[in-house]
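Re: that chain you flagged

S.,

Sorry for the slow reply, it's been a week of failed gels. I finally had a moment to sit down with the sequence you sent. For the record, here it is as I used it:
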Amino acid sequence: MYYWFILLIGIERLAELAVSRRNAKWSFAQGGREFGQRHYPVMVTMHSLLLLSCVTEVAMTDRPFVPWLGWPMVGVVVISTAVRWWCVAVLGKHWNPRLIVIKGAPLVQRGPYRWLHHPNYTAVTAEVAALPLVHSAWVTAIVFSVANALVLTVRIRAENVALGYA
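Prediction finished late last night. Pasting the structure tokens below so you have them in one place:
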């Protein structure tokens, strides 16, 4: 069942990439400028390896499903995915995992952005920790939580510079 859950998350990520491509095309047509091109492939690779590592750790170490941990972590993954798609909906055509900024576009301050500067990254952080823990893949949870923190440190700095540009 866990492998199907990971597959579903992978399909959801592919849907995000489709939305991203469409929005990037629109943003560039509006004069958008891309920042942080060097860290974007690292982000994509890290998230791909996260899914692979979830499956690999569970398969190779025979990690058990522990209901008192697994079910709450499923809830965290579902809620974090919902928050991420809420961010996508609120940002509309401006949403993109690539860092594309249209000069003069207003800073969004509605939806989850009323409360947090980076609600998508908060949701991603929760998801990166929770997804492996659904099936007790604690090594993956630790390794990728640290990797995600490092990537987000670079990403948020780049995003703050880019938003200053706007």
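What I noticed first: The chain has five helices and two strands.

Talk soon,
D.
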